[in-house]
Design a protein that fits this description.
It is a single chain. 38% of the residues lie in helices and 19% in strands. By secondary structure, the protein is α/β, with parallel strands linked by helices. It has a domain of 204 residues: 3-Layer(aba) Sandwich (Rossmann fold). The strands form 5 sheets. A 7-stranded parallel sheet has the order 3-2-1-4-5-7-12, sandwiched between helices. α1 links the parallel β1 and β2. α1 packs across α6 and α7 runs parallel beside α11. It is globular, with a radius of gyration of 19 Å.
C-alpha cells in the first residue's frame, strides 16, 4: 500500500495522521474548505467532496490503495446512503482499493442485559442510529465480497480523550442512575482507536469485526464518578430510572437503555495493539495532566 484515503476527517482521523503520513501518501475527503488547512498542515492532501453529493465523489475512484472510513451515517433514515455513495464512487473506474476499514459502533448489539459480548453475538440494534450502522457494516462486507478488497469493521464504544470528557455535564449536575438501575458501559481512548484503525488496515479480511474497547469494566455512573474525582468536581446526583426521564434528553436516555460488557480478546489477539490507555483511569490521569498545562 502506498496511498491511503480517509473518509470522515474528524478527531480520530487527525490523530491517525502522524503515523499514516510518515508511511503513506494520505488523501482526506473534506466537506468544508476551512478544514482543509488543518489536514494539509498535518501532512494530508485534502479533497473537497460531500458524501451527500455523489457527483462530488468522482475524484475518489482509483485514488488510493486502502480506505479508512470514519464517517457516520446521516442522522435520519434506516440505511446509510453515504456509505453506499462512497462505495459506488470507489468502484466506478480505475483500480479498486485493496483494503477498507470502517469504524462502526458497539450499539449494533443492542441491549444485552449486562452480558459479556463478543463479536459472534448477533446484531440486534434497538435504535435507528444503530440500525444505520448495521446497514453500513453490511454494505462494507458486500463491497469486499464483490470487489475482492479486504474489509474490516471496528466497533467502537464511548470514545473519550482530554477534550472529549463530560465535564460540562458534571458542572450542570446532570444526574446518573442509581447503582441498581445502572448500565454497564465501555470505553476507548481516541488515540487508541486511531492506532487500532491503522493496524486494521493490514489485518482486515472478510469483513471481520473487532470490539475496539479497552480493559475497563464500569457502570456508567461509576465512570462519571471517576471523571468528577479526577477533576475535582462533585460527583453527579443519582436518581432512579423513573425519576431521571424528566431530567435528561432523549439522546442521553437512549445510552442508559442498553447495558453490555464487551470482550476485547479478539482485538488483542488479531490486531495485537499496545494500548496507550488500557483503562479509563490511565486516560483520565493523562487528561488531567494535559489540561493542567
Amino acid at each position: 500500500m502506498k496511498r491511503i484515503l480517509i473518509i470522515g476527517s474528524g478527531d480520530v482521523a487527525v490523530r491517525a495522521l502522524p503515523w499514516l503520513t510518515r508511511r503513506f501518501r494520505v488523501f482526506a475527503l473534506v466537506r468544508r474548505t476551512e478544514h482543509a488547512a488543518v489536514l494539509r498542515a498535518a501532512g494530508a492532501l485534502p479533497i473537497v467532496g460531500d458524501l451527500d453529493d455523489r457527483r462530488s465523489l468522482r475524484r475518489l475512484a482509483g485514488i488510493a490503495d486502502a480506505v479508512l472510513h470514519f464517517a457516520p451515517p446521516p442522522a435520519q433514515g434506516e440505511g446509510d446512503p453515504r456509505t453506499r455513495a462512497l462505495l459506488a464512487a470507489l468502484g466506478t473506474r480505475g483500480s479498486l482499493p485493496q483494503a477498507l476499514v470502517y469504524i462502526s459502533t458497539t450499539g449494533v448489539y443492542g441491549d444485552c442485559g449486562g452480558a459479556l459480548v463478543d463479536e459472534t453475538r448477533p446484531c440486534r440494534p434497538h435504535s435507528a442510529r444503530a440500525r444505520r450502522r448495521v446497514a453500513a457494516e453490511r454494505l462494507v462486507r458486500e463491497f469486499g465480497r464483490r470487489s475482492g478488497a479486504r474489509t474490516g469493521v471496528l466497533r467502537a464504544p464511548g470514545i473519550y480523550a482530554a477534550d472529549r470528557l463530560p465535564l460540562e455535564r458534571l458542572q450542570r449536575r446532570d444526574p446518573v442512575l442509581v447503582p441498581d438501575d445502572d448500565v454497564h458501559t465501555n470505553h476507548i481512548h481516541a488515540d487508541d482507536l486511531a492506532r487500532l484503525a491503522c493496524a486494521a488496515l493490514f489485518r482486515a479480511r472478510g469483513g471481520r469485526a473487532w470490539n475496539a474497547v479497552d480493559d475497563t469494566r464500569l457502570k456508567m455512573g461509576d465512570y462519571f464518578d471517576l471523571v468528577a474525582d479526577a477533576f475535582g468536581l462533585p460527583r453527579p446526583p443519582r436518581l432512579g430510572r423513573a425519576e431521571i426521564a424528566s431530567r435528561l434528553s432523549p439522546m442521553t436516555l437512549s445510552f442508559m437503555a442498553e447495558s453490555r460488557r464487551l470482550d476485547n480478546r479478539r482485538m488483542k489477539r488479531e490486531l495485537r495493539p499496545s494500548l496507550l490507555y488500557p483503562s479509563v483511569v490511565d486516560g483520565l490521569h493523562d487528561a488531567r495532566a494535559r489540561l493542567a498545562r
